[in-house]
Amino acid sequence: MPDRAVGDWLTRSRRRLSRLKLAPGADTLGRVTHVADGIAFVSGLPDARLNELLHFETGQSGLAMTLEPNEIGTVLLDEAEGIEAGTRVTGTGEVVRVPVGPGLLGRVVDPLGRPLDGGEPITAESHEEVERPAPAIIERDLVRDPVETGVLVVDALFALGRGQRELIIGDRATGKTALALEAMINQKSSDMVCVYVAVGQRATAVERAIEAIRQHGAPERTIFVVASAAAPPGLQWIAPAAGFTMAEYFRDRGGHALVVIDDLSKHAATHRELALLTRSPPGREAYPGDIFYLHAHLLERAAHLSPELGGGSLSALPIIETDAGNLSAYIPTNLISITDGQIVLDAKLFAANQRPPVDVGLSVSRIGGKTQKPALRDVSGHVRLDYAQFLELEMFTRFGGISDARVKSQIERGERIRALLTQPRFARLRMVDQVALLAALNAGAFDEHPAEFVTKVRSRIPRHLDNSVPKVVAAVTQSGKASEDDRNRLVEAVRELVHQIALEAGTSDDG
Predict the structure, then answer these.
(1) pLDDT digits (tens, 9 = 90+) for 211-233
(2) Does CATH number 3.40.228.10 belong to domain 30-95?
(3) What is the pLDDT of residues 317-342, one digit of tens each?
(4) Quick check: is 366 catalytic?
(5) What CATH architecture is 98-372?
(6) What string of DSSP letters covers 77-143?
(7) Domain boundaries 378-510, CATH class
(8) Chain centre distance of CA 482
(9) How far is CA 393 from CA 352, 387, 399, 408, 411, in A?
(10) pTM score, whole prediction
(11) Catalytic residue (one of 31, 97, 140, 366)
(12) 3-state DSSP call for residue 296?
């Protein structure tokens, strides 16, 4: 290199160095003392905060869960591969954030918003904190608009509202997830965005749930947040909160969202596992003392916002699994007291082939009829009482025959109610279909036929009403109200269908 070129280079270098502002600095570094079971204990970060996001030099992230005088109990959000004693750790001063926005719709992601469906990286509108405060009382409005599930036993007897938290509870393999998926699928014809959060579920079960939404629902308006049983415990722990944050994006902009958490019993078990591993003192059933606060803080985020804040809503359907129908266990009683009601699924009813196996005696919605459309409220008022009386009378019939004509009539009516409330999967009913069936039941349209007729009528009622009384269907659907004349025309349409089915059955028998 010529001497002149070297001189020019030295001159430029001196100028750049003269412009640099040099000052002493300090960077706090921590080191892993030991790691096991998804937990890393870190020393040397005295300024770390609770729930702060920590970065490991091997590329993983962790969440500061416990702060001790000499070390931090860190929950890993990634696999622990490569992390060992002596690994350097740095604090970020930030909490865990997840991407939010329309770019998540139709995608399968993990609780940190990383795609699991093999698609393109998520295009986020912004990143919001996983742990967000619930709306204050003054920021909320009354829960009065319905969340229609298309399941007659729920919509007629335990109606759900936008902004409500309704617990789905039952033993293993009683159809809890199926009922929640029915509610999500029925939003295909509404303006609600759905978020399905899988916590600690088997990969095959999650795949079936996603496939059911894709086949029968509106996957383009659904977000799937998956932390399967094989995921790190830290991801399973933050999954429900991450799902709520993603749903709150739509609620805070005047939209409506429905969150299904499948399920909180596995989330509670994960919280207990992490708490014990980080040496938190155990309480009842070895759960830490903050388990009630954890779930209450989470579910309080479901709300119907006031008109001043846009009028959006976030509804929640948490699922909880019981052991041998024990509703008085620690976690079930906690969640029953937190939520606005519960739908109890009974294993005996499931074994008796009643779908969905809803126990009408133990189930309740603490908002109930206030969210029902007037047309449905007018015809469903006595159904629950009549059905409960039937179940009690049916129990006594096991001890011998009953000769009283009035009691026989009650039992026959109860059998028809049970047949009406038994509904196969993916056979959703519109509100006007439910009104027509219940009005026909009250009018005695099924009294001269066996209970099996009700099943045949229910499967054919939507098409028959559209063909026979389309104007009434349109009017009731649009207004949510049904005049006496509308109800009479709907009942007459059901009678015509019953007569038609009876003729078909008679022709078949003659043949």
Answers:
(1) 999 999 999 999 999 999 999 99
(2) no
(3) 999 999 988 999 999 999 999 999 99
(4) yes
(5) 3-Layer(aba) Sandwich (3.40)
(6) SS--TT--TT-EEEEEEEE-EEEESGGGTT-EE-TTS-BSSS-PPP--SEEEESS-PPPPGGGB---
(7) mainly alpha
(8) 31
(9) 18, 10, 11, 9, 7
(10) 0.91
(11) 366
(12) helix
